[in-house]
Amino acid sequence: MPTGAEKLITPRKPTLQELLELREIAEFQFGVKGEYLIPSDILVVESPTTNRIRLIISEGKPYLSIRARDYRFNLHIAAGYVLNRVLPKPKLRVYVKDEYASFVSMGKTLFCKHVLLADPGIRPDDEVLVLDGNGELVAVGRATKAGWEMVFHKRGEAVKIREGARSHHSAIYVPKPLTP
């Protein structure tokens, strides 16, 4: 009989119902077709105490986490690359000044004074993509302010970075081509 810790790290294929539910969450949260963000070859990891899905793995790497409090996705860098390709611009994007892009790509916090441009539709606690001036993904994280406030204010935290493109735990990721 597996212990709680062993059960937590044992990935499995999702059922068809779970796959459809995950795709519906993606459509609700990000406004993109669920098949674009959630491919059918994913693996899921359940919480040992609640038996609910907590992590989605794609190509052997963490792809999306699911928050327990509201059952919404937390982005990892692999899913950020996919979202950057499928979301219309500037939806859920925060652009950082080029001189600070390398700092943020290491997983450091993005402050308002370093924000170049932000989607005005961003609300606090939204999952966002952080890009450099060329539109290249630098990091993914959680907005702490509304998009218009990030640009307007010159003090304070704009985005709490979860994972940078060059952080120590995200090896170089080459996204596979989209196939719905």
Summarize the structure in words.
The chain is an alpha+beta fold. 27% of the residues lie in helices and 27% in strands. The chain has six helices and ten strands, in the order H-H-H-E-E-E-E-H-E-H-E-E-E-E-H-E. It has helices at 4-8, 16-30, 34-37, 77-86, 98-105, 147-152; strands at 43-46, 53-58, 61-66, 73-75, 93-96, 110-111, 115-118, 127-131, 137-143, 157-164. Strand 3 (61-66) and strand 4 form a beta hairpin. The longest helix is centred in the N-terminal third of the chain and has 15 residues, at 16-30. The radius of gyration is 16 Å and the shape is elongated.
Write the layout of secondary structure elements.
Elements: H1 4-8, H2 16-30, H3 34-37, E1 43-46, E2 53-58, E3 61-66, E4 73-75, H4 77-86, E5 93-96, H5 98-105, E6 110-111, E7 115-118, E8 127-131, E9 137-143, H6 147-152, E10 157-164
Parallel strand pairs: 5-8
Antiparallel strand pairs: 1-2, 2-3, 3-4, 5-7, 6-10, 8-9, 9-10
CATH architectural category of the largest domain: Roll
Helix content: 25-40%
The CATH first-level class of the largest domain comes to Alpha Beta
Beta fraction: 25-35%
Low confidence ranges: 168-174
CATH superfamily of the largest domain: ArcTGT, C2 domain
Q: How far is the first residue's CA from the last residue's CA? A: 38 Å
Arrangement of strands in the largest sheet? 6-10-9-8-5-7
- Largest beta-sheet characterization: 6 strands, mixed
Q: And the CATH topology of the largest domain?
A: Nuclear Transport Factor 2, Chain: A
- Tally the helices: 6
